[in-house]
Design a protein that fits this description.
The protein is of the alpha+beta class. It is built from four helices and seven strands, in the order H-E-E-E-E-H-E-E-H-E-H.
């Protein structure tokens, strides 16, 4: 009996609280006093605090089923194939799609931006980034390029089988990459 009374009393609160909670952005770990690492956070507390690093997003929303997108991380704004940066990759749990890892491990350098997208869009994103990179000035004689694309499994939020990320979305993320604050969450 007490359980039913408590449930009846809490149900209206449960219906109201999510609406209230969604109005305010969730606090970040540092806002709650949690500090990760030994160094102080930069101005934006983001990867863009590293000089030259740019981040871009393209969000894909369609109907009731599609909620995904692509994020581009560019170590600098120039031609990364012609001006490569040192890189390393470590896989923490060995599960997931990560295209381009072998060459980065072997050569220790990155020759494309890094893309993150939904699981079944990894290959489309890689193909789109190769098209984008080969279209840059100075790339006319290039015969091979190593796109680095990782996945985030958003199958619980998104009709992952629809594979909605297109070349236009990838280009928008790459070309819209900028310094400054980085969008977080569902961007």
């Amino acid at each position: 009996m007490r359980f039913r009374v408590m449930l009846a009393a809490l149900t209206p609160a449960a219906l109201v609280l999510p609406a209230v909670a969604q109005e305010d952005p969730r606090p970040r770990a540092r806002d709650l006093g949690i500090e990760v690492g030994v160094f102080a956070a930069g101005t934006y507390n983001a990867i863009t605090d590293v000089r030259g690093v740019l981040v871009g997003h393209a969000t894909v929303i369609s109907g009731d089923d599609v909620r995904t997108g692509v994020t581009a991380i560019r170590p600098h704004g120039g031609n990364l194939y012609r001006d490569r940066v040192p890189a390393a990759i470590h896989v923490g749990n060995g599960f997931g799609k990560l295209l381009g890892v072998t060459q980065v491990r072997e050569l220790g350098e990155l020759e494309t931006p890094v893309l993150l997208t939904c699981t079944l869009c990894v290959w489309r994103a890689a193909d789109a980034m190769v098209e984008w990179a080969l279209g840059m000035d100075g790339m006319e004689g290039v015969r091979s390029i190593n796109p680095v694309v990782g996945e985030t499994n958003d199958g619980g939020l998104n009709d992952i089988r629809s594979r909605p990320v297109t070349e236009a979305h990838v280009r928008a993320a790459l070309e819209g990459a900028a310094s400054g604050p980085v969008g977080e969450g569902s961007v």
